[in-house]
Amino acid sequence: MSAETAALTEREGRGRRPHLKRAWELTQGAFDRLLAQLDPDAQKAGEKYKTVHRSLSKFFECRGCASSDELADETLNRVARRLEDGETIYAEQFAAYAYGVARNVLREHARGPEPRTHTLDALPPPSHPRLSPFEEEESAHARESAERRLECLETCAGALPAESRELILSYYEGGAGERIARRRQLAERLGIPLNNLRIRAHRIRERLEKCVGACVGRG
Amino acid sequence: MSVPRSKAPDEERLAGYLLGRLTEEEQEGVERFYFGGEENLDLLAAAEDDLIDSYVRGELTPRERERFEEFFLRSPERRERVETARALDRLLKKTQGDAPHPAPLTHPRFRRAALWLPLAACLLITAGSAFLVYRMLAARRADEAAQSRRAEEDRAAQPTPQQQSTLPQQSTPQQPDSQSARETPLTPQPTSPQPTNSQPASPQTTAPRQQPGVASILLTAGTSRGGGASQTLNIARGAERVKLLAEVSGQGYQSYEASLRTAEGAEVWRGSVKAGGRKRGAAVVAFTPPARVFRSGDYTLSVTGLRSDGGPDAAGEYQFRVSRR
């Protein structure tokens, strides 16, 4: 499955925010035109789409929205619509344009009902009831779940190439004080700038998290 | 495809952004930065990793902690990441033997100890290794003697063809991964003799073995397409199973089928697993062929996702190299 088809399939699997007005629905043709605007090469276009979507999703998440993926979808829908209406968006300005649209979506969303419709699961831990009649059972379940996650992490870390495994273990090792110096040394040893090391470590960790998520889900 | 480049914010600024503590103008500055490209976004994500780790390790100030719990943990995905960070923290402690790093040795007696302690440790390790090798060799000799005794006994009591067809298939190795529903090794492997029906397994051979070795590799989509085998799977001597963790694309499949081929295109193994639960994005599916189907060389694993109507979709193709030791 190509990157662009995967991106569309992922979108279709998500729900919709009911309070955002939609007189226009994204069609396959409009989606294809949006991708073509990003890059003439379909594979590269799919990758760029995913990066913009990720940035948008992070934007909504950091602005305190629980439904960040759906809002990112909605933002890109609106961009696609403007393209359909004949607006010109240059590839190099696409992310900036999407960011501008996202700010409008955020304003509209802030007027919506979401803050009053959190599910219990969406609430941060301190908002859960303090006394639970099933407390013991819950903590036993939490312990089991933590053990399962650790097992999965060990399996996933074991499946990493040795070089990546060593890098991630060295990168995250140590307390707050020594970590900075340790990372500088590690970057020097690898002959790369510190920011590149950060990115490299994050990408390995992201892979691990995906693997652990899939493993725990199967459990 | 970029927003006008802005200077990378420092880690404190990024942490402030993630905790929702910046002014609107400052937030906009950070957002323009990470909308500037994938690497910028990854730097923000790396700062998020560090923030989560600081929370898990109790390194945040009470105010930061409060803000983290009230603002940052609103998202269920982030709460799951905190759980994984806790596991990572435990794994790191486990890896380091859960011991704090030793303080610098400053006293003259300690400095002398710093010289002879590593030497003593080396001697201890060498002696221990020699003892282990001796024990392994002794166990192997005993095993070989027992096998040859059994072979002689079996020759003496050879079953009739009718008896052979009813004997249980005790030689199939236990499937270490409960996901695997069925699998078919396609080529006989003379290098690793297995008990056959004509040579029924004695209680000694069917008893649980110590811990079957499992070699594993994570095969990610896109890393090997068109570029030849870029990942290497090292299979140590004695490994019985190989765990191929394939990051597959697509969703909603009932099950996955895998076909393993050599570089020459010969299929050496075929297997299937039921689809497990998944979060958004790619799923990882584990196939566990026996180690004996592998020789050193290049392999291609083709994974097919089976829809609920039974129709197949290509879910991934991965090339990797096998090195047997």
Q: What does it look like?
A:
The complex is a heterodimer of chains A (219) and B (325). Chain A is mostly helical. Chain A is 69% helix and 0% strand. Chain A has helices at residues 3-12, 28-38, 42-62, 68-84, 94-110, 135-158, 162-172, 176-190, 194-218. Chain A is globular and about 55 Å long. Chain B contains 8 helices and 9 strands. In chain B, strands 1-6-5-8-9-3 form a 6-stranded mixed beta sheet, with no helix packed on it. In chain B, strands 2-4-7 form a 3-stranded mixed beta sheet, with no helix packed on it. In chain B, a hairpin with a 5-residue loop joins strand 8 and strand 9 (312-324). The two termini of chain B are 47 Å apart. Residues 1-5, 99-112, 156-211 and 277-281 of chain B have low confidence and may be disordered. Classes of the chains: A mainly alpha (219), B alpha+beta (325). Chains A and B meet through helix 1, helix 3, helix 5, helix 6 and helix 9 of A and helix 2, helix 3, helix 5, strand 2 and strand 4 of B.
